[in-house]
Amino acid sequence: MGNPAEDLVRLFLSTLSGADRQAHWERLLEKFYTYFLAALGDDEAPYSLEQLKECYRCFFVSGGLVMMPMYGPFAQAKLSYLKDIESVQEYQEILTEKAEHLMEDLERWHLYSRDKTNNFKEAEISK
């Protein structure tokens, strides 16, 4: 089985505005998890909601770095058929917003992951 957090990172980065993703990622994961549990029926869940959230946090940097280069080709394709200047400017603003928020979150989740790794290493050393 794959890691659904990876899919959710890519889905949120490609479909949501940066502001919406930052504001609602946790609630969206919670909603996904309720659907997941319903689909499982009586079967035991292979991971908890907190594990899903932690995987999202830890994978975000890798997923974000993979998605970032795709913004350029997507923009180029979209802008190639937009004819009026207002539509072009609007789309450029959308992409700029997504990229700015992505950069903020890359830093945020990188620092989070770094601290988690350092805490884990310190705990291992003190054993």
Automatic annotation (TrEMBL):
Pfam families for this protein: DUF1679
Domain of life: Eukaryota
The name this protein goes by in its record: CHK domain-containing protein
Organism: Caenorhabditis elegans
